[in-house]
Amino acid sequence: xxxxxxxxxxxxxxxxxxxxxxxxxxxxxxxxxxxxxxxxxxxxxxxxxxxxxxxxxxxxxxxxxxxxxxxxxxxxxxxxxxxxxxxxxxxxxxxxxxxxxxxxxxxxxxxxxxxxxxxxxxxxxxxxxxxxxxxxxxxxxxxxxxxxxxxxxxxxxxxxxxxxxxxxxxxxxxxxxxxxxxxxxxxxxxxxxxxxxxxxxxxxxxxxxxxxxxxxxxxxxxxxxxxxxxxxxxxxxxxxxxxxxxxxxxxxxxxxxxxxxxxxxxxxxxxxxxxxxxxxxxxxxxxxxxxxxxxxxxxxxxxxxxxxxxxxxxxxxxxxxxxxxxxxxxxxxxxxxxxxxxxxxxxxxxxxxxxxxxxxxxxxxxxxxxxxxxxxxxxxxxxxxxxxxxxxxxxxxxxxxxxxxxxxxxxxxxxxxxxxxxxxxxxxxxxxxxxxxxxxxxxxxxxxxxxxxxxxxxxxxxxxxxxxxxxxxxxxxxxxxx
Amino acid sequence: xxxxxxxxxxxxxxxxxxxxxxxxxxxxxxxxxxxxxxxxxxxxxxxxxxxxxxxxxxxxxxxxxxxxxxxxxxxxxxxxxxxxxxxxxxxxxxxxxxxxxxxxxxxxxxxxxxxxxxxxxxxxxxxxxxxxxxxxxxxxxxxxxxxxxxxxxxxxxxxxxxxxxxxxxxxxxxxxxxxxxxxxxxxxxxxxxxxxxxxxxxxxxxxxxxxxxxxxxxxxxxxxxxxxxxxxxxxxxxxxxxxxxxxxxxxxxxxxxxxxxxxxxxxxxxxxxxxxxxxxxxxxxx
Lengths: 482, 286
Known about the structure:
The complex is a heterodimer.
Chain A: E1 2-6, H1 21-26, H2 30-36, H3 40-49, H4 52-62, E2 68-69, H5 70-74, H6 82-94, E3 98-102, E4 108-112, H7 114-125, H8 145-165, H9 170-175, H10 180-188, E5 192-194, E6 201-203, H11 205-212, H12 215-230, H13 237-248, E7 256-257, H14 263-275, E8 278-279, E9 287-290, E10 320-322, E11 327-330, H15 335-344, E12 346-350, E13 355-358, H16 361-369, H17 374-383, H18 387-390, H19 393-398, H20 404-417, E14 425-429, H21 434-446, E15 450-454, E16 459-463, H22 464-479
Antiparallel strand pairs in A: 1-14, 2-4, 3-4, 5-6, 7-9, 8-9, 10-11, 11-13, 12-13, 14-16, 15-16
Chain B: H1 2-5, E1 8-16, H2 22-26, H3 29-48, E2 53-59, E3 64-68, H4 84-103, H5 115-132, E4 139-147, H6 156-169, E5 172-177, H7 183-192, E6 196-198, H8 205-213, H9 217-222, E7 235-236, E8 243-244, E9 248-249, E10 256-257
Parallel strand pairs in B: 1-2, 1-4, 4-5, 5-6
Antiparallel strand pairs in B: 2-3, 7-8, 9-10
Helix pairs in contact in B: 3-4, 3-8, 5-6, 6-7
């Protein structure tokens, strides 16, 4: 009889791991957190990312200059939502926003981190030092918002085009090259991989998943990877973070000054300029303009909402129409968008301004095999849905612009692949006699470790945990001469 | 709950700046204190989420005006570490309010603040924002009234109209009474599902505002807030504008009167009376 175990099947394809600010900071050491809380902008960003209840807690004790007993804080929340409250509390602890303090009387209490509360107050009410990038300048020179939008998108698309076009099409690379620095980040983020033979970078599975994200999420993920490597470039991480959030909280169309910045920050600014997060006319010019890409950088929702009398209305960027018969029409001439749609649709026709494809079981399964999830496909289609699809009555009612049949079917196709339940186990086979097999099988069954058996092939599978027991039993059994 | 993230929360603060309020006449600093608190509160609302929106309306004795947002944008540079948008709010509100106070006609005798008019202005603003929002976004809006005025029963009809309009539009009305308790506005908060708070003292007004009025509608369910006290649902009669417990109601137009009259004062219906009216029947409170 032989036994062998198999666990290779259990390997899951590694997917892109998109962190939000909170989970990013939770993985950082507390000393660093303390250091970055010295910047009001970071405190503001961290505050916005907190769960709803945590935000209320922080606000309630922000102006109370002493520790507050934990029991008091707990009494603020309704009992029905105790679970949510527990999450809120632990989140504040993990982020070092508050810590346990002792108050006279021996009761445990919460005390806001003094650095955090001081700088959050500065962000809210003022009274601190000005931001590094708002040195006084002679005469404001505002820029057109639409101009900045076009500039930012064209720069950012260069990065995306590079990812798709690199290696395969040298012509694209000449026109829309990106700096070796950006390539290094893409490689570091595992979005691209160097080919083993000739060393040219090519896109990875994670890279494709990255492309399906909305641009806000893309920029954030990309910047996180950048920050990971910024120490290697000799840049100061807290300084970079603070700069990033200053941009994130700046006003679109307004000019800011780079005067008095350290040389590290100037390098950082040039990098941001390359990715389209800021616009600067000339490298040497002392003023720059943040673009929409850098605004509210931690916000995962693609559209920065514009309501009321705001004059900076977001341009509608939807171009995809999905019909109930699974046909997809995309009004686009961009190779990037065509390539992305081609990931999960079967392309039928291509016209100068329109491509027609169809979502089939095979095409979607092809994408699923590549590690793209149904959720990603649906959200991509949703995100770029044509305005006419969003305005239909059913879309307004269900808050989803896609036909429900298509969404359900894509999810069903994904579930189809999940029919297998993987269990780690050990195979026993090549028994010498039927009696041996039956004894061992019955034993495994009696201690509840049998996964599968076939009497005709004299083969059985037991769980990994049960393997030791069954092996011992078999040794005893065969020693006794069966 | 990702859909919630995309929701815009609009807060319209109506600040009663009428100089005939008792708290202002007694202590001129009370006004400054209130404005500072309201600005800080508004900024805290903006701080909650990047999508949040704010509007501030001043209800003066002669006029009601928007303090924020205004048509002409002020050029602000960030100076002391405060978030630029917050600085913009603070500067604009103070600037506009100074303009308003300087241009207002001199007050001859104490007059009441026309809060109902300000609420309808807020509702109109909310309706406009709602219409202009981009597709797929949801707007949840509320109105916070900060006032130290007395009860004004003379505005009863206008009040009820704006309250029911607000209810129909799904707008929550919150009221923070600085001085007297206001039963009519309390009715409004009850109708629209808002919070009513009468401040025990003027000190620490910001903390009260943050505590009770900052959470939005969904969050309020998750927190323990002051329980709603019994709402005084007395109506004002149409003849003398006084709050009454029991009165007479016209069978045709439902107007309320404290005294019986043979002809309805609103719709001119002639009531048929078989028996002579006995004065004894009439009971009004107070």
